[in-house]
Amino acid sequence: MMIQIGWCAGMQQAGMLAEAKLDYIECPLSSLPLEGNEAALAEQLASYAESAIPVRAMNLFAPGDMRLVGPDTDPDRFRRYAYKAGEAASKIGAKVVVLGSGGARKVPDAWEHQRAEQQLLGCLSFIAEEWRGTGVTLALEPLNRKETNLINSVSEAVRLTAQINDPAIRVLADFYHMEEENEPLSTLMTYKDWIVHIHIADTGRLAPGTGVYPYEEFMATVAAMGYKGMISAECGRWPESDEALHDSIAFMTAMRDRITDMARTKSSGHA
């Protein structure tokens, strides 16, 4: 199976991304009315399922007012939401749902860090049980310290995920956050069996191919991992023009082809 490339965007960009020949779109889960009217949810799910480009991944797991750790959690609400999230993602055809949600998992100043970890582990454990058999995997995303104070590296995410030890819970690696935290790309190789999804950007969290991120090293590492999952561009803002978008997608396509060639060379014993 070849690596698929996609872009994190709203459904309003689906047609444009389909025309640009991307493999999929990654949409925000929290934009679905999972806590609202069932008819509205059914209508939106139908529109996602009929999208011009497949919705293979979803991000922005938690609504803005949901807390996963700290004194203001609402476990019953979380369980209802998480169950419906897995059900909705499965109906849409998404394979991965990303749990970033830095605000939802930020540990309050007066709260013990270890206690917050246990709360998050409880959330992950519930998802592992409820999503089993849906075909949807939750990818825990490390975020840089400017966005949250809980899980800031791939190694930390793997440490928590390993405690759940269920194939429904895996880890996302984000090139931008790794750069912000000075986490070496070799970490990807170390934890290759845990990584189910990858996000990329470039300098300033702009479109891939526009900055000075070490993409040659990234491509070599991903090839060495034997990674065959999805890679989504997740940028701080939309490219400034259609031409800029197409240039970045061309960069990502060439990146994917180069990773494939590197992996093929390695497997044939000529590396």
TrEMBL record:
Cell membrane: is it a keyword of this entry?
A: no
One Pfam entry name: AP_endonuc_2
Keyword annotations from UniProtKB, A to Z: Isomerase
Residues of the signal sequence?
none
Q: Which domain of life is it from?
A: Bacteria
Isomerase in keyword set: yes
Which positions fall inside the Xylose isomerase-like TIM barrel domain? 17-253
Q: Which InterPro entries match?
A: IolE/XylAMocC-like, Xyl_isomerase-like_sf, Xyl_isomerase-like_TIM-brl
Write out the transmembrane intervals.
none
Report a single Gene Ontology molecular function: isomerase activity
Q: Which PANTHER family match?
A: HYDROXYPYRUVATE ISOMERASE
Per its record, how is this protein called by name? Sugar phosphate isomerase/epimerase family protein
Q: Which organism is it from?
A: Paenibacillus chungangensis
